[in-house]
Amino acid sequence: MTFDELGLNDLIQDALYYMGFEKATPIQEQAIPAILDKRDLLACAQTGTGKTAAFILPVLNELSERPSKRTRCVVIAPTRELVIQIDQQIQAFSYFAGVGTIPVYGGTSGKEFEQEKKALAHGADIVVATPGKLITHLNFKYTDFSQVEYLILDEADRMLDMGFHDDIMRIVKHMPKTRQNLLFSATMPPKIRSLSKAMLNNPFEISIAISKPSAGILQAAYLTHDEQKAKLIRKLINDKPAYKSILVFSSTKKNVGTIVRAISKQGYEVAAVSSDLDQKEREAALRSFKSKQTRVIVATDVLSRGIDVADINLVINYDVPRDAEDYVHRIGRTARADTTGVAITLINQDDMYKFSKIEKLIEQEIVKLKVPEEMGTSPEWNPKKSSYGGAGRGKSGGKSGGRSGGNRNKSNSRNKKR
């Protein structure tokens, strides 16, 4: 289905045309008509399915046809990176529509706080915010959400995992009871169902099955002991000089520094991104990585759903992610838009059970390699002996880780070019 068939107005169509958007994804085909029909929405769809366009295009369509100086849409997302990404996409989609947006997130300067305060008090068409920072503004009692028509929760499962349930419910109390609610989640655990019952009114439900890793991703794993990981990462990077963009994921902030130091010894440009850094440092690291000035970036899962960088050649998982779905998100940063890429995971004995769950989820057995001989021996693959689960788990075993306006004349030129 093309976007022409979805009933969006000329201002939105103009932006889509100049951005090269033609065919809608499955989530867009199902969500956009339902949202235009004023239905509440409960959608299960992961990153990479086009869900941001699915929820923002129909909202922009309505806001552009009814100009106002009040805040009419609030988008809540779990991380600063995702807030920035959503805000940038809204700006692109609304280029001809004259709809304003303000991102609200932590780690900003006093000047930016005043800009947020002014927008929240006097109105911005769309507010995109993290829950914690939005609560901070609400506590000062100048925020005016009395005219909000749309409330959108993106990656709701991640927000609940991060403990934002009470913040979300506090934010909801500041909005009119009559509004359209759109809830997007990568997974659909019971707590998401409970949240939807509390917030949504007879929602239209969409479930886009978690996609398997792209066929363009060459996946492999190394069986390693922890003390071998730093040397192995250095070798993997050394052996691939043609790879100009390499993303290394760590499940802990502590290991980010260890990895950066190990890679820096080789003389490579490497940057870190974790919640320990302030926002300016994180943004600078991402800009350098996107522009290919920095070859390697090391990050926690804060980036697994919130980074939009083209042409990432290699993703390395320093450790196995806690949740099987996060593996798909992590390696999905490479081989985007029908390109190819490589994803390599380092597995110690304790992580074997978690990795076996990943293989079950993606319905694929990943080839497992031993470390080079000069690094010593590898542990034998045996997920049942993992301390995270399996029949062989002993008493010490734990649980499984688990902006600018335009005019309608632009549409004539678009139609002519077609």
Question: How is this structure best described in words?
Answer:
Helix 13 crosses helix 14 (about 350-360). The longest helix is centred in the N-terminal third of the chain and has 15 residues, at about 50-65. It contains 15 helices and 14 strands. The chain has two domains: about 5-210, 3-Layer(aba) Sandwich (Rossmann fold); about 215-385, P-loop containing nucleotide triphosphate hydrolases (Rossmann fold, 3-Layer(aba) Sandwich), CATH 3.40.50. It has helices at about 10-20, 25-35, 50-65, 80-95, 110-120, 130-140, 155-160, 165-170, 190-200, 230-240, 255-265, 280-290, 325-330, 350-360, 410-415; strands spanning about 40-45, 75, 100-105, 125-130, 150-155, 180-185, 205, 215-225, 245-250, 270-275, 295-300, 315, 340-345, 370. The two termini are about 15 Å apart. By secondary structure, it is of the alpha/beta class. The chain is about 40% helix and about 15% strand. The strands form two sheets. Strands 3-4-2-5-6-1-7 form a seven-stranded parallel sheet, with helices on both faces. Strands 10-11-9-12-13-8-14 form a seven-stranded parallel sheet, with helices on both faces.
